[in-house]
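Reopening: Pyridoxine 5'-phosphate synthase still failing for me.
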Amino acid sequence: MHGGPRVNPTALSVNLNKVALVRNTRHLGIPSVTRAATLCLQAGAHGITVHPRPDARHIRGDDVRALHALLKKDWPRAEFNIEGNPFHNLMDFVRELRPHQCTFVPDSEGQFTSDHGWDLEKDGERVKPLIAEAKSLGVRVSLFMDADARAIPLAKAVGADRVELYTEPYAAAWGTTRQGEQLRRFAAAGQAAHAAGLGVNAGHDLNRDNLPDFLRAVPGVLEVSIGHALIADALEMGYAATVRAYLAAIHRAAGGGSDQ
Ligand SMILES: CC(=O)[C@@H](O)[C@H](O)COP(=O)(O)O
Ligand SMILES: NCC(=O)COP(=O)(O)O
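Support: Ran it again with your exact input. Result attached.
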């Protein structure tokens, strides 16, 4: 239906980890993380995500502070999302900077990449006070969770505002005979989140090809945070054209146009 009210499309938060990863291979300060943020936000991205891991393999503390200052000064409507393990270094950033959102991720210090969500039956009581502390500072809390509909309500029980569905299993199945099964898993997890009064974010290995099918199958996703594939695309197309392509994929999923 043309001209009718469009549902609010999902917000795009660009994860800049991989810009910092390349920058760290020389002592020249390029590619610039803050310039990447500026160009992505100028192109229409809704926010910036960083995951300052304890080993500082990519995003470092100075990057987090510089991005926070940039968004506060030049992009007050953009959201800043800081990811990390609250039992490692994440809470220091939450207390110092009070970002719009923090995403609790249960990664070990040397983990290759994020590859699982929280086991709240085991860790729920431990994360609960840290969630309460972050919220008392005015920071929205999202918990990185596997797409398990039975586990999602526990995120509400420990005080989270949102869950971020860990989407690698879907991304790995995309384009195969297993895609439908994965989409049903994620749709059920999203439904469980909505039923529990939780907002739904999503991320990990999403790209402009697999994104529309996901957003059509999982209604009401508030934010996708995308880094690795988006930055890889930007190496070929540039930040602006790449962000526009991802926004177009989001709008296509919201019924704003065909896939052709
Ligand atoms: C939590 C998650 O899935 C990603 O946001 C994470 O930041 C990826 O970390 P790397 O960029 O270090 O692989
Ligand atoms: N939370 C997911 C994220 O920020 C980026 O993940 P990826 O797109 O780098 O896999």
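The first strand starts at residue 11 and ends at 15. If you still see a failure, please send the error message rather than a screenshot.
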